[in-house]
Design brief:
Pfam families: GHMP_kinases_C, GHMP_kinases_N. The protein has about 300 residues and is α+β, with helices and mostly antiparallel strands. It has ten helices and twelve strands. The strands form two sheets. Strands 1, 2, 3, 4, 5, 6, 8 and 12 form an eight-stranded mixed sheet that branches. A four-stranded antiparallel sheet has the order 9-10-7-11, sandwiched between helices. The structure holds cytidine-5'-monophosphate.
């Protein structure tokens, strides 16, 4: 049996370029891994089977569309294994369809868990390539820490960071579809007259002030530099997110933003005590289903228990 722990992410910068001919958007995507995470356990089994527990387990598909199942099959195919055999169990804490890359995290965790279970010893570079085939956010879940993602988010460069930052995540009722939020971003750009294609929108780049705030471990400077080009689209599709963002700010957050494509909202706090206070205030505010105080950065997917000898 192999258990892998894997972090959720928040995007401290999500710069979205124009829509490309392949339908994706070029990004300047600064990923930040937080301690809120899932655990995926792999046990020998027949075929690829999946179970899931946790508060949102009912919303998790257990068929071959689940990124954990796809990861197991992709790794087996890469190594020419005739019939992959694994039973995967996901202990889910990351909000489902919440803009925190929870499905991607499970895909990354399953790659690592199956690699250990099947004794394949796949090099990290190869795992990262397989991860990129599974989805734009999957490679970062393997890497963790803080990283700049270019291209559609899969071309990663680790970034220097000092200290620990304290975060609160407000979980909404129900998810948002990532493609729908990107489409809404395009629609809002068309509507405002700027256009939405790569000819219309300059290729985004990482914000130097944001990178300096991360390197300095300065939460006040990071709060001033946080940005998410998908935020207007997420709020347009779910206007009640404006109330959630306001409630966290009123409770003392240094900054509030939508996490990735949402609808989870992220709040940067000045320290752990402040984060606990903001989480309690958000839970009491009636503007979200629940709220979690956590911290980061933390490492990417890691084996926490190896097969018994
Ligand atoms: O890569 P992944 O399958 O996670 O992406 C999900 C969807 O999000 C894509 O089908 C696309 O609609 C949108 N997306 C995008 N540009 C990106 C990443 C994702 O438009 N860079």
């Amino acid at each position: 049996m192999v258990t892998v722990r894997v972090p959720a992410k928040v995007n401290v910068q999500l710069g979205v370029g124009g829509v490309r001919p392949d339908g994706y958007h070029d990004l300047a995507n600064v990923f930040f891994a937080v301690a809120l995470g899932d655990e995926v356990t792999a046990t020998p089994g027949d075929g690829v089977t999946l179970t899931c527990t946790g508060p949102d387990a009912d919303a998790v598909p257990l068929d071959d569309t689940n990124l954990a199942a796809r990861a197991a099959r992709l790794l087996a195919a890469h190594h020419g294994l005739p019939a992959p055999g694994v039973y995967l169990h996901i202990a889910k804490a990351i909000p489902v369809a919440g803009g925190m890359a929870g499905g991607s995290a499970d895909g990354a965790a399953a790659l690592l868990a199956c690699d250990a279970l099947w004794g394949l010893d796949t090099p990290l570079d190869t795992l990262l390539e397989l991860a990129a085939e599974l989805g734009s956010d999957v490679p970062f879940a393997l890497l963790g820490g803080v990283a700049l993602g270019r291209g559609r988010g899969e071309i990663l460069e680790a970034l220097p960071v000092s200290g620990t930052f304290h975060w609160v995540f407000a979980v909404a009722d129900g998810g948002l579809s990532t493609p729908a939020v990107f489409r809404e971003c395009d629609r809002l750009r068309e509507e405002s007259g700027t256009g939405a294609t790569i000819e219309d929108v300059p290729t985004p780049d990482a914000d130097p002030e944001l990178l300096a705030a991360l390197a300095d471990g300065d939460p006040v400077a990071l709060a001033a530099a946080l940005s998410n080009d998908l935020q207007a689209a997420a709020v347009s599709l779910r206007p009640s997110l404006a109330d959630t963002l306001r409630a966290g700010t009123e409770a003392g957050a240094l900054a509030a933003l939508v996490s990735g494509s949402g609808p989870t909202c992220a709040f940067l706090a000045k320290d752990a005590d402040s984060a606990a206070h903001i989480a309690a205030a958000l839970r009491a505010s009636g503007t979200c289903r629940t709220a979690h105080a956590t911290h980061g950065p933390v490492p990417g997917a890691q084996v926490v228990s190896a097969p018994r000898p």
